[in-house]
Design goal:
Largest sheet: 8 strands, mixed
Distance between the termini: 155 Å
Helix content: under 10%
Strand content: over 45%
Radius of gyration: 42 Å
Number of strands: 36
Structural class: mainly beta
Number of domains: 4
């Protein structure tokens, strides 16, 4: 019987020891189940504030369970900026030793977490320090800069010096800490908060989208659509002074442009010629814990390049409709695509910048390349199935008097007439009735040979008419 009594006594001692030495953790678990809501001071400008609601937080770890940490929470109805201020002027750190009492400077800190388990820290710890005499002012803890946070609930851990106890000495903190939480709501045009791949915020042309990069969501995604080939300007801005990254993605989400930039509320511009399709953007802060307002805007200028065949059996040619005042327009036989903008054959391709048309006398594919003043290059092609391949009639030479500067005659209407004189070509155009007049730089001399041939709009060349000046 005594054996069983001894066992019961031993079990009772183990239970008491667990309560004494494990009481602190038990109390912490109890506090976590009842988390008080902090008062928020809502302001229109986080950098300018006069009024505030102070949270008076009672701290006393002189009694069991000797709490040195208290957990609170606050809820943001909208995305915005937050600043914190922590005071310790009403706190004392007391030490009792053999009936002697001394006062030391207490420390109290505040850390904000995204989760109730206090794992994901979103605002760095701030620390306040009390004072032991009136000659030395206490030191407040304050966030160095505004912190961008998403809407939702956050948890604040208020921690102070631990209670220390020995056989003859006991040290504890007692009093009130003051905690002020400033909050500036920020309006956002973003539909998806947070955004992600597959949930990109849409951008419409000529309309700026205001956004916010936050500590928990440091990257935003956007999407826009191009319905016709266009020269697209993308203007973007990041409020923070820290580094950020801009990326433009193609239709298959391949990176087209990647740029790192410093924020500072400076607007940056990227310009790119884009074909029809969907495109994606991302803005990302590169500094941990950073955040701030963003702005992004898309504008575009259509860059048409339309090829149209005019006529089929007589005077067939390709008409080119494109941007105003192109720097260079060339055409070449064959079917080329945007991948062939630097094909070496373009160097010798015929220039049609002034006329924006070219004749065709052979069926098949033709490609046109346009270059603008900014170096943007784009290509279109057309397939000609039927065209004029009949040479024009031989021209007639009627006027070629010695001592004159002029050669006249008739040729196919609207054809290009070439007069060969002194082994040099001189060109003129036949009018709608077929009459032509070609002015030469020197007088016609007796015995000089004159050769004339015509080229129609399609590029067909006539046989030559030849005369000798008498």
């Amino acid at each position: 019987m005594r054996k069983y009594k001894n066992m019961l006594l031993l079990l009772l001692l183990i239970v008491l020891a667990g309560i004494v030495f494990g009481g602190k953790d038990t109390a912490k678990a109890y506090v976590q189940t009842k988390i008080d809501e902090l008062k928020i001071t809502k302001v229109s400008d986080i950098e300018v504030y006069n009024l505030y609601d102070i949270n008076n937080i009672t701290i006393d770890n002189s009694f069991y369970p000797y709490l040195d940490t208290r957990i609170f929470k606050f809820t943001l109805e909208e995305d915005g900026f937050v600043k914190m201020l922590l005071t310790a002027d009403k706190l004392t750190k007391n030490t009792y030793s053999n009936s002697k009492h001394t006062v030391q400077e207490p420390l109290v800190s505040a850390t904000v977490y995204r989760d109730e388990k206090l794992i994901f820290e979103v605002i760095p710890t701030i620390t306040a320090k009390g004072s032991t005499n009136t000659a030395k002012a206490p030191v407040n803890g304050e966030t160095k800069a505004k912190v961008a946070l998403d809407r939702g609930t956050y948890y604040v851990a208020i921690r102070t010096d631990k209670m220390q106890q020995s056989a003859n000495t006991s040290t504890f903190v007692k009093g009130e800490a003051g905690f002020i939480l400033y909050y500036q709501p920020v309006e956002s045009d973003e539909i998806f908060r947070p955004s992600s791949v597959g949930n990109e915020n849409p951008i419409k042309s000529e309309k700026a989208v205001q956004g916010l990069l936050t500590v928990a969501n440091p990257r935003d995604y956007y999407m826009f659509e191009i319905k016709e080939r266009s020269l697209v300007d993308i203007t973007y801005m990041y409020e923070s002074s820290n580094k950020a990254k801009f990326v433009l993605y193609g239709k298959d989400r391949e990176a087209i442009i990647t740029k790192q930039f410093s924020g500072n509320n400076v607007k940056y511009l990227e310009e790119r010629l884009l074909d029809v399709g969907k495109y994606y953007l991302s803005l990302e802060t590169l500094s941990v814990g950073d955040g701030g307002r963003t702005s992004i805007e898309i504008s575009s200028i259509p860059y048409p390049l339309n090829l149209r065949q005019v006529n089929r059996t007589k005077n067939s040619y390709i008409k080119v409709d494109t941007i105003e005042v192109p720097k260079e327009v060339r055409y070449i036989r064959g079917k080329l695509s945007q991948r062939d903008i630097n094909n070496s054959n373009w160097r010798t391709a015929e220039l049609i910048t002034d006329t924006l048309q070219f004749g065709i006398n052979k069926a098949g594919n033709y490609s046109v390349r346009v270059v603008d003043d900014f170096g943007n290059i784009f290509i279109e092609n057309i397939s000609a199935t039927a065209c004029d391949n009949t040479a024009p009639a031989k021209p007639k030479i009627k006027g070629y008097v010695a001592g004159d500067y002029e050669v006249t005659g008739t040729a196919e209407a609207n054809s290009l007439v070439t007069v060969m004189f002194n082994n040099r070509p001189y060109k003129c155009e036949a009018d709608s009735k077929g009459n032509y007049s070609c002015i030469l730089p020197s007088r016609l001399a007796k015995g000089a040979k004159i050769e004339v041939y015509a080229t129609d709009i399609s590029g067909n060349v006539s046989s030559s008419a030849v005369v000798t000046v008498k």
